[in-house]
Amino acid sequence: MPLPVRANAENIRYLMTKRDRMGHDLVGLDEFGNFQESVPLPGEFGGAL
Predict the structure, then answer these.
(1) Buried b / exposed e across 7-45, counting CB within 10 Å, b at 16+?
(2) pLDDT per position as a tens digit, 3-43
(3) What is the reported pLDDT for 21?
């Protein structure tokens, strides 16, 4: 049974990868536009590792 998850700053990259590379049917991710590019990777800009 699928469990829908809302996209947020912490999971947008993961969800877009699931959709784009693995073919998961995830709706509502496009509303973030280029949001994924603005989320720093862990360790960037003093972020936690």
Answers:
(1) beeeebeebbebeeeeeeebeebeebeeebeeeeeeeee
(2) 777 888 888 889 889 888 998 888 778 777 555 455 555 56
(3) 92
Q: Which amino acid is at 9?
A: A
Q: Could you state, in order of their start, the residue ranges of all structural domains in the chain? A: 12-46
Instruction: Give the integer Cα–Cα distance in Å for 47 and 38.
Output: 13
Q: DSSP characters for 1-49?
A: --------TTTHHHHHHHHHHH-----S-GGGTTHHHHSPPTTGGG---
Cα separation, 47 vs 45, in Å, equals: 6
Pair of tokens at residue 27:
């709706």
